[in-house]
Specification:
The protein folds into two domains: 142 residues, CBS-domain, CATH 3.10.580.10; 230 residues, PPM-type phosphatase domain (Phosphatase 2c, domain 1, 4-Layer Sandwich), CATH 3.60.40.10. The chain contains eleven helices and 20 strands. The chain has 408 residues and is of the alpha+beta class. A hairpin with a 2-residue loop joins β10 and β11. It is elongated and about 105 Å long. The longest helix has 42 residues. The termini are far apart.
Length: 408
């Protein structure tokens, strides 16, 4: 008897079910003999598997390859030809309802072992035979679904990148008004976990970079949280005390992520996320620079003087282990004319590369800064990037990359 369950069109991927894989098939009753099965397989080259029925209910599945291999052995036709076909059937085939989702069918097929993918599976409607499906069909549909989902995810991430760049645009505009400055921002992925903020005021300018936990989508979420906290803290605290501003950001991130309990350990916290950051406030009239860093250092190169490094505090912002009362001191420096300032996230120093596959390193960065200290900030940034890319070579990018250099 014949069962035609073919469909002309698959529904949209997220609605696909086992019924979409259903193909017409011949079937045999449980009391059919092996000679009848052999004749069916001989006449129907397209039959890869043959359901066995008790009435209209499937009870087993005969694999063409296994059956024909057995019946080709000497004397098997004489011995088994007139016996019931249940002798060669799989008594525990994968049987699924047509309404079963493709996702659940995939889990069931994998759990049932290789036979479901090699020999196929039986599809029923209300317990009665509807047709059969095959592993190759299932793999094709799953691959197509996954490709579509990946396309949708990538589209979402690409649009998230548009949003992230739009958030950073006011800072880019402010940076454009600075005579000799450059800010490099390169997410490792389409979106990233680094961010920056630049503001110009009547009596000076503020610049900050942040390196949040993670990269990609999780990192981008953290940049939105950290940026929001920073933008709320600036009107309240002001830009002239970077150390206090770091503390406000740390407390704000802790509060938003619920990481506020004193002594709470990483193992029991729902999250343990935060950021490294460097904030700078510069007053052109007095040439005083106010700097505070959380695990990010400031590099200062004054004409005719050796490179000076002002290390940031070793405590990051917002993490579970960061004390709510943690203080980040503000360092005040008076800059000589034509001094160069440089701050960077660890995506620069931690990149693996070179002949020995080791980190780019702080020393290499400092040597490059000293070597090219007289160059304008954009040119120095280009030279630094050139050396960085050459060092990286064929190694994958390790992290987001952000650095800020200027000659105020």
């Amino acid at each position: 008897m014949e069962f035609d369950a073919s469909r002309q069109h698959l529904p949209r991927f997220r609605q696909s079910t086992a019924g979409d894989l259903c193909r017409e098939t011949a079937a045999v009753a449980a009391d059919a003999c092996n000679a009848e099965v052999q004749q069916l397989f001989t006449d129907r080259r397209d039959l890869m598997s043959l359901p066995v029925l008790d009435g209209a209910r499937p009870i087993g599945l005969i694999s063409r390859n296994i059956f024909m291999s057995q019946m080709s052995k000497p004397f098997y036709q004489e011995l088994y030809g007139k016996k019931s076909c249940i002798a060669f059937m799989d008594k525990e085939p994968l049987i699924v309802e047509a309404s079963l989702s493709i996702e659940e069918l995939t889990f069931r097929a994998v759990a049932s072992g290789e036979k479901a993918l090699a020999d196929g599976f039986i599809i029923t409607r209300e317990g009665e035979l509807a047709g059969v499906g095959f592993g190759l069909q299932l793999m094709n549909v799953v691959a197509t679904m996954q490709a579509e989902r990946n396309r949708q995810i990538m589209h979402s991430i690409e649009y998230a990148s548009v949003i992230q760049r739009a958030v950073l645009r006011p800072s880019r505009d402010a940076l454009a008004g600075m005579a000799d400055a450059h800010l490099e921002w390169q997410p490792r992925d389409i979106v990233g976990g680094d961010f920056y903020l630049v503001e110009r005021h009547a009596d000076g300018w503020f610049a900050g970079i942040g390196d949040c936990t993670g990269h990609g989508v999780p990192g981008a979420f953290m940049t939105l949280i950290a940026s929001q906290v920073l933008n709320q803290a600036l009107p309240r605290v002001g830009a002239r005390d970077p150390g206090r501003l770091l503390r406000e950001v740390s407390v704000g991130v802790k509060a938003l992520l619920g990481q506020t309990h004193t002594g709470q350990r990483r193992a029991v916290a729902e999250s343990d996320d935060g950021l490294d950051a460097a904030f700078l406030w510069f007053e052109p009239d007095s040439r005083r620079l106010h700097f505070a860093g959380a695990r990010i250092a400031l590099h200062v190169l004054a004409p005719g003087e050796p490179l000076r490094v002002v290390e940031g505090e070793r405590a990051g912002l917002g993490y579970v282990d960061t004390d709510p009362c943690q203080q980040w001191p503000t360092h005040v420096l008076t800059l000589a004319p034509d001094s160069l300032l440089f701050v960077a996230s660890d995506g620069l120093t931690d990149q693996i590369g070179g002949a020995k596959a080791i980190a780019f390193g702080k020393r290499r960065v400092r040597d490059l800064l000293a070597e090219h200290a007289g160059e304008p900030a954009p040119r120095l940034a280009a030279l630094l990037l050139e050396a960085f890319v050459a060092w990286q070579g064929g190694q994958p990018r390790r992290d987001d990359l952000t650095f800020f250099c200027c000659r105020p």
